[in-house]
Amino acid sequence: MEDDFRSPQAEVVKVLAMGNNVDGQLGTGISEDGEDQVWEPCTVSALERLGVVSATASLKHSAWLTQDGVVYTAGDNDEGQLGRIGKRSKPFKVDAIEHLPVEAIAVGVGFTVMAARLDGRLLGVGRGERGQLGMGGADREQKEKVKFSSALGDEQLLTLSAGEAHCVALCRSGKVLAFGENRHGQLGSGDFVSSATPKPVPTLQSRPVVSLCCGASYTLARTATGLLWAWGCNEHGQLGLGDLKQRFRPDQVKALRVSRCVHVAAGYRHTLAMSENGLLFAWGAGGCGQLGSGGIAESEPTPRVVDALREVGRCMMVSAGHSHSLALVWNQDTERECLYSWGLGSSGQLGLPRQSLQDRKQVPLPQRLRIDPGYRVVDIVSGPLAHHTFLLLARDGAGDGEQSPSRWPSASAALLQRHSLRTAIDADELLRTLRRFAGSEVGDSSPAQLKALTNAVGSAFSSASVLNASFRSSARPEALTEEKSGVDLLKVRKAYTTLIFELKSRDVIAILGRATLSICDELAKQKIPTDDPENLCVFLVLFENPLLLSEHRTALFPGFHLALRNLIQAVRSLPKDSQRLLFGWLKRLPSEYFGRVVDVVQQFVSFVLTQPGQNQGDASAGVLMLRTLWDLNREMDGILPEWCFHNSAISQSADLQEHYKQWVVQQQEHVFSYCSYPFLLDAEAKRRLLSFDSQVQREVAMQELIAQTMRQGLPVEETFQQYLQFRVRRQHLLADFCGQLWWRLQNKPQCLRLPLSVDFVGELGIDAGGLRKECLQLVLRQLYERTTLFVELEECPGLFWFRPSTKFWSKGCIAEDAPSELELYSAEWVDHLPEVAGAIVGLAAYNGIYLDLRLHPLIYRFLIQRTISVTFDDLRAVHPTLHRSLASLRTAADIRTLGLSWKVSLPGADEEVDLSGGTAGSSEAFIESSADAERFSSAYAQAAVIGAMRPQIEGFVKTAVACMAVGRAFSLCTAHDLELLLCGLPNIACFKEMERSCKYANGFTAASPTIRLFWQVVHGMSEVMKRKLLLFCTGCDRVPILGLKALDFVIARSSAASDHLPTANTCVNQLNLPEYETLEVTRNRVYASLEHHSGFGFA
Fold first, then answer.
1. 3-state SS string over 40-59?
2. Residue 222 CB burial class (10 angstroms; 0-12, 13-18, ≥19)
3. 3-state SS of the chain: helix, strand, coil percent to 5?
4. What is the rounded CA–CA span in Å between residue 1025 and residue 1005?
5. Under a CB-based contact definition with an 8 Å cutoff, are residues 972 and 681 in contact?
6. Confidence grade of residue 213 (pLDDT, cut at 50, 70, 90)
7. I want to staple 977 with a disulfide (CB 3.0 to 4.6 A). Which of 60, 283, 973, 1066 is the partner?
8. Cβ of 384: how many Cβ atoms within 10 Å?
């Protein structure tokens, strides 16, 4: 089953052997002439058509593994290492385990170790007196008998590597186990005590190790991002650490940290490593020329590039024997793979003709090895004790697409075709495997196969090291920088989707949930090393887990909230540098992945706050992380809209007002309050806080006015009522309202903090909310129609800006003189229209009234900031074409040739403006440098957006802010929030929502025939008519922030006859509807009332 998780490999059709054959270790048999060395590659005919996938070699014996998991061995058998009795010069299978498929093999001096494919058990045969079989001491007798280790527990082995008398193993869980001799510290346990039982290498715990390699008495480990770790014997500098000191713990080979290792091979005392860009590095003992430098070096402790191969092309594969080396190189000139060998060749292990070798049988520089052009090399095999070499060949078919690296993105990608990341989850192969189980095929799968799959999923997804190594980008799997993690999140999402939604296996979902809980617990307990960026990739994978989202939770994962808590705690507990790196990756993710992270954290906060029995203090960690994500979103210019950060549980919390009071009173940073994180609050929550703030200020203003009136000896009730109420006549609405508003601004500004009340002279009705809404709407409409204060932007249809003129009245339109019977009136308002308009907007915000305010969104930013300032980028929002022109000017190659003057004509202005500010010497000066161009474009943006309009904008903003009577709640709002608070939702919502929330009175029910006819008429209306319906029923044609369901709309049965039109009580959002009997009558009466209504209670 486990074989399904390996990358597909080309079929090996031929195995070539060369080198020492004294003990028959080549498997070619003993030659008739008694020659015990094979100088040129010859075919191991006994292995043909067996489907060999890998081979391994030691001093006196060799082993091969077939695709079916069968092991073949040949060579010396003095220690029983062949798994049978007697020496063999040709490959024979190990009959004792023929029934048990094997996943991996490794050979050392006198022993062979294997890993079972189905359950990952450790098998061993041969000598084991130094613990090299890992059998816990039970491996000293019956050496030729294959033994099974019981010391692994639940761990399943995936790959093995052996040195002279020690072994290392990589588990499916990502753990690195070591056993055997430890005289030089080669087990990496921190001491020099040998171990007959496989034990973890502590330093590599949770690191994304993907391959292991043993030298004679030292060990190497490579991680998914190309970091190399080394430990053990170092007398010749074979660890590459720059010295000759042995290490009993893994130490990182920092010399290769930048180059990124993608393949490594160890000889007896020398090491080879290939970088992601195809360079080959060599270090360690070089007395036989095995370093390929052209010289003989006793020791080289620092990795050096093999220059002779760099001149040929990109290295694709390397292998090392006792004192010889081999490499497969892509020749850029011939566009072919070329095989090179160098080092000691006294036994023919280099595959070079005997006559071509020097007297000492050493080749210090790489020499090309000729291979039949009809084949290509799949793998090169030797070993740290071996003086022989194997070549695994496949047919070089024209259609296989693997010969030319033009189809590979890089050398590292080419390498992955040959050496898959065995511990990592290959997403594409995983998907193919899972989909074979999905749907109807699940029943056809054997229980053993499904169990193996389930165990593999549990083991992989509960391991930080495996997830850190998995889902790497195909183009550059080792690439990892401060900007990019190298994780392909699309692969992650596909894997989770298939596991949960396509496979639909309860067992798989349950074990995935347990694995998620387990790994999050490990992360929270800080068991994961954070000294290298590669160890942080697991967080990106976990945030993609759908089980952490409420809509995908199942009863099979009851501990999701614990996993969420631990995951967020783990992120918050990371060192500052690690947090900075992780959040740096997050902010550069595409919005769909960054949004998933935000969703996961939001889910945790909402769950803690809404579910009984939860410690609500746990929500603070999620809130703090959301603040970090919010800051990242702002740094990236808002890749997610503001509403993605709104938390409904917090926004609707009954404790929100208490949090606000605490925040206002204490104002300490260490006091936790939702109001310290305003991005969590939606516009409706902020509206409630503003309303609460306004209520407090109303009470204070009321007390001040009453006290002031009493001190002046005036009648309190009469004077107070006079200050409170605006008395207006419908035919002189603009003049009446604006004149009284300006008088109050100039003489009694504190009375504007009282609730707005409007009395339409000569009309019945008491203002309980509906009249003031209607009044402000009508006044604003007349400001648009009768004045020239605003101008519609040409490139932003429907949006208005301030006109650069102090002549505010349209031709033929004048302001009426104020009638004498109105008191508290000032006729000077006609000269202060910007201030009056600002006051109207401020009153609407203060009293919670929606307006049909068509101002550009930049105005709302001015209101929030309470200052008038723009940048060059703001020009794009107002005059996009002009912005593009000025942006191209900034990047122009030769500005002088354009002949641009500092004197320009601005949009909407009649006269030219000098933008030089006097610094250019004269207005006729020209722009001559890039610095001039930048200053010119910035000045142009300022003049075009604000310029001559500054007095109008400043007057508008100043009075608007003053009339809003802004308290601390106002500081919680963004410009977008303020736009929603003033204008409501921009689009007419579905009236089905209004129908569902509607209440009925005076005998009407949802099933009444008239009600059914009415809603049928409404749903057939155009958007214009729907807005007229809202205006008729509520006094405002805007949709509330929470949608139409927030209107508390009521339809009451009217006692009027059916020939009467409907009426409305706008103060309580009530429609009074006579009992109409037909659809046509209902439509005619409703439409007539909407088209012709005017005034309170019109019928």
1. EEEECHHHCCCCEEEEEECC
2. buried
3. 40, 20, 40
4. 24
5. yes
6. very high
7. 973
8. 31
User: Quick one: which of 654, 666, 637, 646 has its CA closest to 601?
Assistant: 646
98/676 Cα distance (integer angstroms): 68
pTM higher than 0.85 for the full model? no
pLDDT-derived band of residue 412, with 50, 70 and 90 as boundaries? very low
Please provide residue 409's backbone torsions phi and psi, each rounded to the nearest 5 degrees. -65, -30
Dump strand ranges (E) for 823-959.
Answer: 903-905, 912-914
**Element at 282 (helix H, strand E):** strand 280-286
User: What is the tens place of the pLDDT at every residue in 103-112?
Assistant: 999 999 999 9
First-to-last alpha carbon distance for the chain, in angstroms, is 80
Q: What is the residue type of 262? A: V
Angle of helix 506-524 relative to helix 560-573, nearest 10 degrees, comes to: 30
Nearest residue to 505 via CA among 442, 587, 423, 581: 442
Q: What is the enclosing helix (H) or strand (E) of 388? A: strand 388-395
User: Can you tell me the distance from the alpha carbon of 9 to that of 522, in angstroms, rounded to the nearest whole number?
Assistant: 35
- What is the number of residues in the chain? 1099
User: How do residues 297-313 score in pLDDT, each as one tens digit?
Assistant: 888 999 999 999 998 89
Side chain identity, residue 78: D
691-709: pLDDT as tens digits = 888 888 888 877 887 787 7
CB contact burial 113-151 (16+ within 10 A = b; e otherwise): bbbbbbbbbbbbbbbbbbbbbbbbebbeeebbebbebeb
Q: Cα(425)–Cα(470) distance, rounded to whole angstroms?
A: 5
Going from the C-alpha of 507 to that of each of 451, 460, 530, the distances in angstroms are: 9, 15, 33
